């Protein structure tokens, strides 16, 4: 059996290529809530393969502005706090943070306190690509980043947003 082509609407990539623009943008915004990024990707269709889609995603957001970063961060819950929403982004976030044991009261408290300290220092939610990481790893990363200056932290956050977007794009293709 041959692999589906990029125009096969049954395949994930074929669906990405054939979705009406507003629907595709809605799905892309669940990956990274940055309008410019979503629109630029939608404008680059059709994609021959997943690598081309990922390249378009990378090219669309090489330089996120502070305003775009803050908009995107608003869609992310604190690390260690389960998103209560029912939308795609909330569902993905719960899955991505599955390494945090909600029953570990000491860890949950340390994450809550770390999040609060981070937010006081930087003025926004702590963000890290949590997929495949334990709660202890996420806490260690949080603590290590508290010593960063604002410019360094904004670069790290932008990189983390792009990592999360790439992982979520894979989910869009697979759906």
Automatic annotation (TrEMBL):
Signal peptide: none annotated. The keyword Lyase applies. GO terms for biological process: purine nucleobase metabolic process; urate catabolic process. Its EC number is 4.1.1.97. Pathway: Purine metabolism; urate degradation; (S)-allantoin from urate: step 3/3. InterPro entries: OHCU_decarboxylase (IPR018020), OHCU_decarboxylase-2 (IPR017595), OHCU_decarboxylase_sf (IPR036778). It catalyses: 5-hydroxy-2-oxo-4-ureido-2,5-dihydro-1H-imidazole-5-carboxylate + H(+) = (S)-allantoin + CO2. It is an enzyme of class 4 (lyase). Keywords: Decarboxylase, Lyase, Purine metabolism. Residues 74-101 are annotated as: Disordered. Residues 83-98 have a biased composition (Polar residues). GO terms for molecular function: 2-oxo-4-hydroxy-4-carboxy-5-ureidoimidazoline decarboxylase activity. This is 2-oxo-4-hydroxy-4-carboxy-5-ureidoimidazoline decarboxylase.
């Amino acid at each position: 059996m041959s692999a589906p082509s990029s125009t096969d609407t049954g395949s994930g990539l074929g669906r990405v290529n054939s979705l009406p623009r507003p629907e595709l943008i809605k799905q892309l915004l669940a990956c990274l809530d940055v309008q410019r990024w979503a629109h630029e990707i939608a404008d680059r269709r059709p994609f021959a393969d997943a690598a081309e889609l990922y390249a378009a995603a990378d090219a669309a957001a090489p330089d996120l502005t502070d305003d775009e970063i803050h908009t995107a961060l608003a869609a992310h819950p604190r690390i260690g706090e389960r998103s209560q929403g029912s939308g795609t982004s909330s569902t993905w976030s719960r899955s991505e943070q599955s390494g945090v044991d909600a029953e570990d009261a000491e860890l949950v408290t340390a994450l809550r306190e770390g999040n609060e300290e981070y937010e006081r220092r930087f003025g926004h939610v702590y963000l890290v690509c949590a997929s495949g990481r334990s709660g202890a790893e996420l806490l260690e990363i949080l603590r290590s980043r508290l010593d960063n200056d604002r410019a360094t932290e904004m670069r790290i956050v932008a990189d983390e947003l792009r990592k999360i977007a790439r992982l979520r794009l894979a989910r869009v293709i697979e759906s």
